[in-house]
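The instructor's notes for this session suggest beginning with a concrete chain rather than abstract definitions. Hand out the sequence below and ask the class to guess, before any prediction is shown, which regions might be ordered.
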Amino acid sequence: MSLFADFRRRFDLRPSWSLNLAGSLARDRSEASSPEQPYGRREPYGTAGTDRSAYLAIAEALQDGADVVPASDEVGRRLAEDGVSLLEALDGLSALYRSIAGGEPAFDAVRALSSSWAEASLIYLHSLSCEDPLTGLSSLAHLRSRLGEIYREAELRGTSVPATHALVVVEPLTPAGITPVERELRLIDVAECLRIVFAGGDVLGRLGTRRAAALVDRKPNLPDQVETVRALITQWRLDSDEPQLARVWIEGLPASFEWGGRVLDELARPS
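After discussion, reveal the predicted structure:
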């Protein structure tokens, strides 16, 4: 079952275009049902779906002898956003490779597609509730809501949000090739460190798949708290001799909520 029911409902209303490997569009449903053609999703009874163009970037990379990892990464993200399950996405990748290369997909392509699909799925799931079930951090939507309350309170009191509040942002520095599961474990550690330092009712939230933030009061000891967070994260994992490095900084807030929301969006954007 798709993780994105609302996307998929809209997806089902789209015209039944198909795409051959040369890139030409057609409305031939019999051609669309060919088992060797890549597809974006399946109909309820196994008929190949409509969005074959999702795999076009990978097809072009294969035909040109180029690196398929960037194309696979983008395709995995796109398919997740379009409501395609991981099984269907991998089936489509396998059909594409059989059509062009005559064999099963390369491991690097499978890994890139699966990882980006998982990241896009996590972003969607985190937007459904006010709390991330894995880290316990507030969702981006809840953080935005609390930020809006702070701006409204400041307007009523005649105070300035940039002078009274700030974001403490943490981005774990992860090695190349880290899996989504390993990245989640790093964020769980970050969340625990933030709770220790900011235990006075500050809102702790998640910014996308790679960052966490605390919405805090601008107090004189805020720089000391930031240094404490950095030190805790570095020494948190007792089962490892390697320090867990992270970027930790104070992000100033703009004067208006509109621009404050844009700051959150930019921080949550995949890097």
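Then share the key points. Strands lie at 18-19, 25-26, 165-172, 203-207, 211-217, 246-252. Residues 140-268 form a domain with the Alpha-Beta Plaits fold (CATH 3.30.70.270).
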